[in-house]
Amino acid sequence: MIRAAIRAVDYHLPEARLSNDDLAREHPEWSVEKIASKTGIDERRIAAEGECASDLAVAAATKLFVRGVVQPDQVDYLLLCTQTPDHFLPTTACLVQSRLGLPTTAGALDLNLGCSGYVYGLGLAKGLVESGQAERVLFLTADTYSKVLDREDKGVRTIFGDGAAATLIERTEGDRDALGPFAVGTDGRGAEHLIVARGGFRHGPGGERPTLHMNGPEIFTFTLRVVPPLIAQLLERAACRLDDVDLFVFHQANEFMLEHLRNKLRIPREKFFVGMRRCGNTVSSTIPIALCDAAAEGRLPSGARVMLVGFGVGYSWGATLIRWP
Q1: Quick one: pLDDT at residue 35?
Q2: Which of 81, 193, 251, 292 is catalytic?
Q3: Model-wide pTM > 0.90
Q4: Which of 262, 311, 266, 308 minimizes the C-alpha distance to 289?
Q5: What domain range is 19 assigned to?
Q6: Which of 173, 207, 241 is a domain's end point?
Q7: Residue-wise over 188-208: b if at least 16 C-beta within 10 A, else e?
Q8: Residue of 52, 115, 279, 292 with catalytic role
């Protein structure tokens, strides 16, 4: 039976760092250390002036090529998840296809999703592979949220960082599902609580720089409301129990939120990965970055069953199970 499986994951972070000490010097009135103790973030990586999502995505994908995991001419489809595209149009995936030297016979498209984007992208990749449309899908996540942050808003400056990740999903044969099932959800009534209102046509550019607005308390409440039933739904579809999962890798929003979720779900600490201290919340790239870091720490042996859970802007949420390659 044709199955889709993750073959490899890698990531790239921009060089510039924004540490808590940097923020304290810039804003002495902020209780940066108190914020750091709740967010679990010591520093964030920040894209340089002129460094865009495509640049980070290309760097992440190149790491897979250098490792010999796949070569550009072997990629059948490119998926790119970003909410900070290089241009209004064309799609950033088309720019990346050219820069990476992927075949002109390869499909390429963008997904405009945030913190749930990695799960959704994996679902699309699975569909492409198992329907026979592609044998190898290169799925990239890349965002430069720093370009839409208000420098005076500590609620977002202390959390978000820039980064990109590359995941290769390919065709395999076997009876065991290595990617999936999936459970997803959407509630557009929460759109106003995490939004960049300008930059589209609803409000027009208006001469103002697009900036991110985030209602932190509402996002926190939403997350605690939707994630537990989401996980219950996924476990039912997979016909497995919470104890059958080897590691839980959630969207790395902030440590305070993750600890509340872990306690609410009664997940043992040793099975729950938290790792955003050196890069911050990188939106759709947090899960693949966390997967790589967990593997580097020896917490992801080959064949491990991992639950991935994403949630955020939209509101949008999703969860899936994978087998670590």
Answers
A1: 80
A2: 251
A3: yes
A4: 308
A5: 2-173
A6: 173
A7: eebeebbebebbeeeeeeeee
A8: 115
